[in-house]
Amino acid sequence: EPTVRTELMEQIPPIAIFLQESRPKFPTAFFEYLMPIVVRYLTDVNNQVRKAGQEALLILLEHDLIAQSDIENKVCPILLDLSAPDSDDEYKVEAVNIICKMASMLSRTTVEHMLLPRFCELCSDGKLFQVRKICAANFGDICNAVGQEATERLLIPKFFELCSDSVWGMRKACAECFMAVSYTTSPEVRRSKLSPLFISLISDTCRWVRQAAFQSLGPFISTFANPSSAGLYIREDGTLSIRPSTQDVNSNSCQPSNNITLMSSSTNA
C-alpha cells in the first residue's frame, strides 16, 4: 500500500539520526538497510511516496547523514536518470526540483562535475517549460553552489537564454534572481554583460517582467558596491543585508553623523 510506504519513509530521518548518535553500536545499519530504501523510493510509482522520499533525502543531506560515496554513486545517478531527455515528464520535473534544492547541501566539486552539466541541459529543455521555470527560479542558488568560474563559463550563457525565453514567466523568474546571479560574477561581467541584460528585462514587453525587474533594481545595483566600504553583504538565505560599522556597534544611540556617513557611502556606491 502506498500509504504504508509513505509512512515508512517519514520515519527514515529520525531513525537515521538515532543511528548516527549510536554509531558505535550500529556502524553500518543506515548504509546497509535504510539508504537503499531511500534510493528505491525516489523512483516509486506513487507520487506521494516519491515526494516523501525526496523530503527524507533533503533532511538526510541537511544533517550530513549520507556518505559522499553514496551521494555520488547512488543518489546522483538516480537523479540523472530521472532528469534525462527521454524520461517521463512528471519524473523529470521532480528530479530537476530536487537537484536544485540539494545543490546547496553538496560539495562544490560534486555539484560541478555531476549535476551542473545536466542542469545546463535542462535550462534549454524545449519540451517542458515547467523544467525551464524551475531552473530559472533556482538559478541564483546553482551559481552560488558552483562559484564564479563555473558560473561565468557555463551558466551565464544559459542565463541569457532564459532571460529571452518566449514564456514571460521564465523572464520574470530570471529578474527575481538577478541579484543572486550578479553577486556570483566578477565586476567586469556585471558591467559588460549583466547590465545590458538587466536593461532588456526592465524594457520587457510584459509588465509583470518589468515589475519584477524594477523590484530587483536596487539589489542588483548593490552588487556593484564595495562590501568593505558600503557594508553590503549577502546572507546565507540569499537576502541582502547591511553590516553595521564599528562606530554604529560601539554607539549606544543613533547619532546624526552615523546616518550621514551611511547615506554618503551609499551614494558613492
TrEMBL record:
GO terms for cellular component: cytoplasm. Keywords: Repeat. HEAT repeats lie at residues 115-154. PROSITE patterns: HEAT_REPEAT. GO terms for molecular function: protein phosphatase regulator activity. InterPro entries: ARM-like (IPR011989), ARM-type_fold (IPR016024), HEAT (IPR000357), HEAT_type_2 (IPR021133), PP2A_Regulatory_Subunit_A (IPR051023). This is PP4R1 phosphatase. The gene is Ppp4r1_1.
